[in-house]
Design brief:
Number of helices: 6
Radius of gyration: 15 Å
Structural class: alpha/beta
Strand order of the largest sheet: 2-3-4-5-7
Largest sheet: 5 strands, mixed, barrel
Number of strands: 7
Oligomer: single chain
Order of helices and strands: EHEHEHEHEHEEH
Length: 178
Amino acid sequence: MEYRITAPLEKDAVKKLRAGDYVWITGTVYTARDAAHKRMQEALDKGQELPVDWKGNIIYYMGPSPARPGRVIGSAGPTTASRMDPYTPRLLDMGLSGMIGKGKRSAEVTEAIVRNGAVYLAAVGGAGALLSKQIKKAEVVAYDDLGTEAIRRLEVEDLPVIVVIDAQGNDLYEMVNA
């Protein structure tokens, strides 16, 4: 199936998605990579608030290259999602509804996706320059000192992704290899 969805995500929108579906996302998406995830984990461990309320939101595992003149953002391709696996179940339990990256996820992440009715989406690796054209606005909202790994709020229009793990736990990678 093919769907156009708006971010932040409504639970009903997530529930209808199935592994293998093509999705175009329009709305607000946040970026966060390894260093930002580690910093958020440390903040939570200290009982501190996070800089973003993740409820209903999507994290795009991406650190952009510098923007060329006249562009909003540089190359914006996905990074390997498994590097965020140690931190992801906690964020999902806090209301995170979706993640965009590339590659497989751990069993713990899949369990947290199902437990929370979330979704894991993949963007095409190696297509960062093309994906950046779907980003209409980019703004650093936290951890500016992390440079490319700072948390950014993106306004996207028709960002193309594929459902890899749906809210029922179906995993496209396992379905293809079966």
